[in-house]
Design goal:
The complex is a heterodimer. Chain A has helices at residues 3-6, 24-36, 40-43, 52-55, 67-75, 79-87, 98-102, 109-122, 126-132, 136-145, 173-178, 196-208, 211-218, 220-243. By secondary structure, chain A is mainly α. Chain A folds into two domains: 21-123, Alpha-helical ferredoxin (Fumarate Reductase Iron-sulfur Protein, Chain B, domain 2); 133-243, no CATH class. In chain A, helix 2 (24-36) packs across helix 6 (79-87). By secondary structure, chain B is of the alpha/beta class. Chain B folds into three domains: 1-31, no CATH class; 55-232, Glutathione S-transferase Yfyf (Class Pi), Chain A, domain 2 (Up-down Bundle), CATH 1.20.1050.140; 246-423, Rossmann fold, CATH 3.40.50.11810. Chain B contains 19 helices and eleven strands. Chain B has helices spanning 26-39, 44-47, 55-64, 103-108, 111-123, 138-144, 149-165, 184-199, 201-214, 231-237, 239-244, 261-264, 287-293, 313-316, 318-335, 347-355, 374-381, 400-405, 410-425, and strands at 68-71, 80-83, 89-92, 97-100, 127-128, 178-181, 222-225, 254-258, 296-297, 341-344, 371-373. In chain B, the strands form four sheets. In chain B, strands 9-8-10-11 form a four-stranded parallel sheet, with helices on both faces. In chain B, strands 5-4-6 form a three-stranded parallel sheet. A two-stranded parallel ribbon of chain B has the order 1-7. Classes of the chains: A mainly alpha, B alpha/beta.
Amino acid sequence: MTAHAKLPTPPIADPVSDRAPVPQEALEAIFDDIRKHPLYDHEIHGCLNCGICTATCPSAQYYDYSPREIVQLLWTENLEGIYDAMQEKIWACAQCYTCAARCPFENSPGGLVMILREVAIKHELPSVKEVLRPFSRVLLKVVTTGNQLAPNMITRDAFPDWGPNVTKVDAPLMVLRKAIPMPTMHTLDTAWEVNLRTSVELYTIWEATGVLKQLATVDANLFDVVSDVMDEKRDEWEEWLEDNQDEDGDTDD
Amino acid sequence: MQTKGDGAGGAYNGFGADWTPTNLTETEAKRATGWVEARIDKRFLLTGKDRKEDVRDIMWQLEKDGEIVVHRVADHHAPELAKTLYGWDKKIPTTNLWHHKSCGQCGNIPGYPSSVLWIMNQLGLDYLDETDQTSCTAWNYHGSGIGNVVSLAAVFLRNMHQAYVSAKAHGLPVGTYYPLIHCGTSFGNYKEIRGFLLHSAELRAEVKKILGKLGRLVDGKLLIPEEIVHYSEWLHMMRHRIAARQTIDVSAVRATVHPACHVYKMVPEDVIYDDTVLNGDRVAVTTGLLQTLGAQVIDYSTWYDCCGFGFRHIIGEREFTRSFAIDRKIKVAVEEARSDVMIGHDTGCITTLDKNQWIGRAVGKVYALPVMADCQFAALTMGAHPYKLAQLHWHASPFEELLEKMGIDWEQAKAEFVAYLDEVKAGRIETLYDPRRAITSGPGYVKPPKTLQGA
């Protein structure tokens, strides 16, 4: 039994909003998942409120965000405050870990933010889908290929603010890629050519670690597309294995 | 030390009403505190405490207990020793390296990895660049929250296992190649995950089940690399050999360094510090290289700041990324340090600082600072082609003036590259190694003769 569970527990509501109050049980369930995260104890050890984390935080300069506040909310088990921070603030963190490098307690506010993001996804908090919408193209790429980024994703249309000189030599993209002296990089759809077995092994990791479940929570359509790609690649790999059994029963892999 | 006109009132400096200045001369002040420097190593307070553990001690114990196998940095990797933050030794392998590529570098700034491989060719070092590798997937994790410690650990150990066994595909013994991590985030993430794995039997058990399914155990055990090595660390150890082959004088170049957060702020105890570089107070890689090459390394007030990449922000919230990159890094490097070039050692930083200058014009912040990786700059000083090898045409920031300052005829080099593109179209492509080496399994792989298998 923790301190927060003994306190009077009126439902939490925003006084200037018509939104339904969040039941205390839901807040506790969220906090329990945070506290049970395997890295929670590694990332938080105490807090003197010195604020050196916030003083060095890049996001604190541009957003209503403070790593000190995140640590304090968790350290004091402020369930309402934690829930509120998980709506928007946790997505402001730039994940540079300057806060962790500076904290005299060896806390990692950046690491705590990652725990909060994982739990926000698990509990399908309203902000998650909105925040991650621009990320869907990247998620598709990384889950299906293991590469976060591909050359054909860097276009002037996708990054107009990068200006007209994204490449300074005017030639078809594939020609420019083949002019890179590393054969693994003569590709457009992935940053380097990815071995078929590599992709298939990665899918096993995603399935075994609940990553696909996370993906389904964030974007059901994307999950369907990813599942189709995974099925195709697995079939391709099985076919290759069948075709390449040698006389010893070994495959040529 | 208090000097004349330096706020002798004390209270103005925030020291309180009881504070009075000593009015010591510089020599007297040095004598008053010199004994501290003479008697106490500056890192003694940290190294002398038990609270700072070296996870490699746990690693060796787990191997002794029969729970894991350690992929050693062996003699055939020609290791050299470097000192880390607390004065511990770190073994840096210098040859027979397995390139753990970066998705952001290969997709966006390809001259980055090609420069590393080219320098290895110049130095006569062996390596393998192959297709059986995923990214660390940590860019995605830090940006989206999709993923978790188990998935990150499984990806880490899968790639490390592949590095260990890769040489078998060419008829060489396992352990021939040692992984060299190109990306700063992969480097930081892998070190952090290695620590979690060594501390948690539960995590090891979960990951072991997955790697068992993949056939990625060694004698039924998890394989963990002895050292996790970033390419900038390898470059640091190579700096004198690179300088010996230098053909371009860079003594007129004013360079600023942007150190990458995930390189030196994550698991800081495993980062190289060198008393001869920045007095041993800041990370030595890149700065040490530039100094050895003879460039002027100019300090600036926002050295410690991140670049603004943000993982999620570079994709979905670019107003933050470009504002931070311009206001906190580019502007300061130009106006305060009068920098000719900013040199980095990580994927996201180079991308962010290079690509986000043009948009500054929209708000009257007009800057044009070349940004590139340390390995690209080093390759240029060794005479590498700026387009064919360093691939600078993928950079959005203008590098032409810098090349002129280095005495490189960029116009001629560009014309040569454009002519080379016609050769490429005709299928006459120059590569740094035999392309057949890149495929070690599956479609396209050619098995070595039976006599070499299992060697």
